[in-house]
Amino acid sequence: MTIPNIITIGRLIIVPIVIVMIMQHRWSTAFVLFVVAGVSDGIDGFIARHFNQKSEFGAYIDPIADKALLVSIYVTLAIVGAIPSWLAIVVVSRDVMIVAAILLSWIMSRPVEIKPLLVSKLNTAAQIAFAAYALAANAFGVDLAGLDELAMVLVATLTIASAGAYLGGWLRHMTT
Known about the structure:
Phosphatidylglycerol_P_synth, Four Helix Bundle (Hemerythrin (Met), subunit A), transferase, mainly alpha, 6 helices, transmembrane helix, single chain
């Protein structure tokens, strides 16, 4: 068990706590825990890369922890009415599609390697930023002065573009 893996497991443990905080409208605590989770993601990656602590387990568990946090937060924010449900549906649908494609590839004995694409990295950054904004808006009264609609459209657009890019790559892999 490496230090990055322990940090990642800690991030997984934070997920249900953040969800409970959102459900209880304890926005400040939810925001702080979300920031802690985000910072821990950067720290575990830095340690893994710079101190030769990469592991196969870490390669799998880190993206699972990231997705567990983001998907859970988007769903919970939609449930409590802090974001529109359509946005949560777009975010979750992308991840379900990717997981389904990977599973189908394995079932068909044609495993596909998923590598982060630039559009995917931009998408993740936009999703994190918007989730942080939604939490901060409720915790501290932060207001984007009408730009929140534009931010939601940006998140949805990047999410759909990322899904399309992965789907296109997967289809090329499966049909060659």
